[in-house]
Amino acid sequence: MLYDKLTINGMTVPNRLVRSATWEGLASTEGFVTPALENVMLELIDGGVGMIITGHIFVAEQGRAGERQLAIYGDEYIKGLRSMVQKVHDRDGLIVAQLAHAGGQAAQAITGMPALGPSPFVRRDGESCQEMTENDIDFMVYSFQQAAARAVAAGFDGVQIHAAHGYGLSQFLSPHINKRTDMYGGSLENRIRPLVRVYEAIRYVVGDKYPVMMKINCEDYIEGGLLLEDSASIIQGLEMIGLDAVEISGGLLTNGPTTSSVRIGRFDTPSKEAWYREATRVVRDRTKLPIMLVGGIRSFSVANGLLSEGLIDFVSMSRPLLREPDLLKRWSSGDLRRAECISCNKCFSVLHKNEGYFCPIARTESPESHVSS
């Protein structure tokens, strides 16, 4: 199953391994593509990944999440993005642009603008964000739409809407964060409204024959947060209006290490892997959409088993492919040892030092494996 093709709205993915969106920290300070970032993408394609989903690309200046994040909020970014995409295509690879707005978690120190969320809330840095006006929400929707048009112009094979992990759209979905009393807060119908508007705005500019996907939390795993039943309803509703595929994740940026989307620890037995598999069973019963599952999948047996039982359609990985971009090639050669990633999160320590996103363990073992920016 892992090596089987599958088509998403006309895009044929050569196998079922997806590089889940990963903030590489290798764009220029202004958000442009760099040779180092291109090299990461090519290394993944050479390693056998069926489809790359880029790190979160910010669609508006005020929605930027951090340093050296890739940008798509202006036409000036299209040229560099097109060059990167073309190099991936030259090696017969597929690459999807993840479009994101950080909302209330935006990097105010970098943007020089206040962070805007659905409601004021205390951010992970201890500061509070401001509440979006209806005009702010309109501009966020417009920004996603224009970013999608630029992604098409750059040649991306599809787009993924980032609605997970406590970024902008995820904040609207979460009752823990969204305390609004207008048409964007309260009921699930209201909380989903910005996401539906973003999807419809994107679909309007990209057309029916272009893959549009979404990443969403199965649950927020925090008191008062988005629950599984609501998440399943959201996915079911977006399927009805034309969404092409969904990636299941979970947790918020402010969650602790046991409930975040990047948990720490050795997931060295099958029962410890695939943190969201049981939640995904609920989603699977509600939708026929292709499902990608990210979170703690480390072994060939678990990956192939989840696919074979029909629970999911794609295996998404992030940290394991940072450690071993050629993991699928290794498995296909007959070496079925589990992924070498030990989920220590040391990759985040270097990322936050603006050294780019790489595995320090791999670099220690093989210095040439680190791509300098």
From TrEMBL:
- Provide the NADH:flavin oxidoreductase/NADH oxidase N-terminal domain boundaries: 2-333
> Which GO molecular function entries does the Swiss-Prot or TrEMBL record give?
FMN binding; oxidoreductase activity
The alphabetized UniProt keywords are: Flavoprotein, Oxidoreductase
Recorded protein name is: 2,4-dienoyl-CoA reductase
Q: Which organism is it from?
A: Halodesulfovibrio marinisediminis DSM 17456
